[in-house]
Amino acid sequence: MIEMNESYIIDDLSELGMNGTQIREFLRRFSGIRIYIRKKKSEYDEIVTLYNQIIENGAKRSDAIHTVSGIFEKSESRIREITRTQEDLFEF
After folding, report:
1. Distance set, CA 75 to CA 4, 66, 84, 91 (Å)
2. Number of other residues whose CB lies within 10 A of the CB of residue 7
3. Which of 36, 45, 54, 76 has the smallest CB count inside 10 Å?
4. Mean of the per-residue pLDDT values for the chain?
């Protein structure tokens, strides 16, 4: 786990386009809280996004699963499970 302090977060939030008032509000709300963002969820999001892009380009499901499996170094059965159960997980 990588520890970050507020100066690193301020720089990143500024880079993402947040203004000073929004950054101060963010820091006020989350000051004193240790936050851990699991890699698994973001990786699953990347897997589902790439899978959907490959399917939209006309590939068969089996070919898309094989391609994504190679890129993320996961078994094809694991990719099938992720794409089957994670499709609506990242809708906001």
Report:
1. 33, 9, 14, 25
2. 8
3. 36
4. 86
pTM beyond 0.70: the answer is no
Instruction: Compute CA distances 35 → 49, 57, 76, 78, 79, whole Å.
Output: 25, 37, 32, 28, 28
Query: CA angle, corner 16, sides to 14 and 20, nearest 5?
Result: 30
Written as six digits, the tokens of 68 are 């994504």
Q: Using CA atoms, how far apart are residues 37 and 78, in angstroms rounded to an integer?
A: 22
CA distances from 70 to 12, 16, 21, 24, 63 (A): 31, 31, 44, 42, 11
Q: Which tokens go with 80?
A: 């099938």
Q: Is the pLDDT of residue 87 over 70?
A: no
Place of tokens 């000051």: 31
